[in-house]
Structures are given as structure tokens and as C-alpha cells.
Write the C-alpha cells for this entry.
Amino acid sequence: MTVTVSIPTILRSYTGNAKTVECSGESIAKLISCLDGNHPGIGARLLDEGQLRRFVNIYINDEDIRFMGSLDAKLSDGDAVTILPAVAGG
Amino acid sequence: MRFDSLLESVGNTPLVGLPNLSPSSDVRLWAKLEDRNPTGSIKDRAALAMIEAAERDGLLTPGCTILEPTSGNTGISLAMAARLKGYKLVCVMPENTSVERTQLLNMWGAKIQYSPAAGGSNEAVRVAKEIAAKNPSWVMLYQYGNPANTLAHYTGTGPEIFADLPTITHFVAGLGTTGTLMGAGRYLREQNPDIQIVAAEPRYGELVYGLRNLDEGFVPELYDETVLTTRFSVGPREAVERTRELLDKEGIFAGISTGAILHAALGMATKAVKAGLKADIAFIVCDGGWKYLSTGIYESSLDEAEAALDGQLWA
């Protein structure tokens, strides 16, 4: 099972400047382990004490995972995952 | 309708049905036309509410200077109200906003301090906080953390929608300061605990997310995620596509953030149809398209529109 993950500019130092990477995992938590395995250190930038960091947003097919079970949110083959820093509007 | 002054006429906007975009008579879409406010955007509500709250609290006195970080619409609303009430206004605005915003702010007499494009509104907030520290007599209303912003929607936008549409099942709005969703969302949920409160968040080009590190991210103090049912990130391509669809099918000439909101609203409509449920989905038309004409997105191809908006704060 493979999902495509979009990496924000500030985390591309971990992915050799790749904008998107592929990884696998049935949940976001497992996906982050997979990402950290392939790109050591990236996991600690996303999580703090096992929780998603406050200024990190992750979306599965454009829906915010915090409303889909957060790190337990389920993934299916072909899903698109996007990681973005939180920014202001208004 | 008659009002004693322009400021009295803020709010009480029409809720308009969308017979052509609604999937069926059981699943209907309704547009709350916030472009019908005095300066043409929903921000008139929050701007006026914040100024009046600061006057009541004694923070704002005649001749005061107001300072505000804004990507445009809030600044334009504040500029109009400040002009009528005799305040000076300094806006901190990211340089990657449409040229019309600068023109409108100048027209109403506001001073503009530009903040760097990279980092978008996060940078505007940071720069405004620095300026505030150096100018202690200036009053920063701070839309991202000012409860009067939320309250304007709790007492205005929310009740207006519910009065016009008591059968409402979904409320969809944009997520910027979060004031609209928090205020109207809380009011509507009190009336109907099962209502779905849906956020559409603009997904900008990479420049806007160009923070130096993740700790410089920003979540408005007003934000309470328990008010929301779900939250969608909508990119410029979908936003432009829906903005044009709204114009083509329903004749509504809206700004680009409205397209992002409509995209989320149509997603909820499709879900309701699939589930065989009745739905009355109300969404916010934040502003008209006038301020975005210079981007060319109403006439160009979708590829060109997407390229034109790359790196711009289009919502």
C-alpha cells in the first residue's frame, strides 16, 4: 500500500529536497514511522511526545486529520497526504 | 431599508438560493452574500465590532491610531470605519496581495506598512507586534485574538442565517482569523446540535509557507477546533474553478476565497446525496470579485490562473 506525501519547503532538508515522497502505513502514525525510517529526523519535526505538533497540519486527500482521528486516521492505497505549517489568514 | 449612517447598515445581508448548483430539491445550497456590506466584504462586521468594543473599553479615544496586521479585507473595513469615526489607521499587509487592496486602503486614507511576502500573514502579525511594541500609544485591535471578532458573528451572521434558514444542516465558511466559523458556528450549534460546521482553508503557494522553522507557525488565539466538524484545504485551482462556476451557473461574481468555500460546500452536498439525506447547506460569499480582477483569473485558462496566484495571498 503506497501513499504520496507532499513535503513543505521547511522539511525538504530531510528528503533531499524532494517535494513529494512515497511511503506506506495503514494510519498516519504508521506513515510517520515509515517517513522517519526513510528520512531520519523528520518524525521529530512532526510529533512532540507522540502528539502532532501544534503548528503542523496534515491532510488526507485535503481533509485535516485532526477531524479524522488525528494520528489514528486511516489511510488507503493511493491517498494523497499533505503536510503544511499552520499559517494565518484574514 | 433605511439607516442613519453607513456604519448602521453593516450586516443583514441576503441569503440566496442556488437552484442551478444545488444537486436536488432535497440537497440545497444557500449563499450568504457578505459582499453586500459597506466596503464589500464580511470583514465589515468584525472591524466595526472590534472598534466599538475598544471604544466601550476606553482603549480608543478620538484621534487615536489603530494598528492592524491584515492581508487586506479587514484593513479596508477598518479604514472605512476609522475614517468615519476620526481615527488614523496603519495596516501591516504582506506585499504579495492584490494591487486593488493597496488602492482601496489608500483611498480610505490608511497608511500601509508592507511585510515580506515569504511567510504571508504570519509575517504581518510578527511585524505588527514589533511596531506595536515601539508605539505603545497605538491601539492594535488584533483580529486573530479579539473576542469582538467572534462575537460579531455570534450575534450577527449566525442568527441572520438561522432566521432565514431554520432547516440548516451545514454551515461552510473560510478559515482565516477563524472568527466567522467560531462565532456563527457556536450560535448555529446551539440551535441545532447536529449541524455540521465545515471550514475551508486556502492552500497557498510555497512562498507563503516559507517560514524559517515550524515554531513560527501560527494558530489564531480565537480558534477552537471543537466548534468544527471538519476542515478542508483547498488549492487555487479548485478555488478558481468554483469561483467561475458560481458566476456561470448562478450569476454571482465572487472573490477567490468564496470559490474555495463553495468547493467544500459542494463536497458536503455530494456526501449528502450519496447518503440519501436532506441537506440545507449555507456558505459564506466573503467578498465580490472586484478586488481580484487584476489577477486575470476570471478570463485566463485554469493553468494561467493557478500560475498567477502562485505565491499570492488570494484569500
The longest helix of chain A spans residues 28-38. DSSP finds two helices and seven strands in chain A.
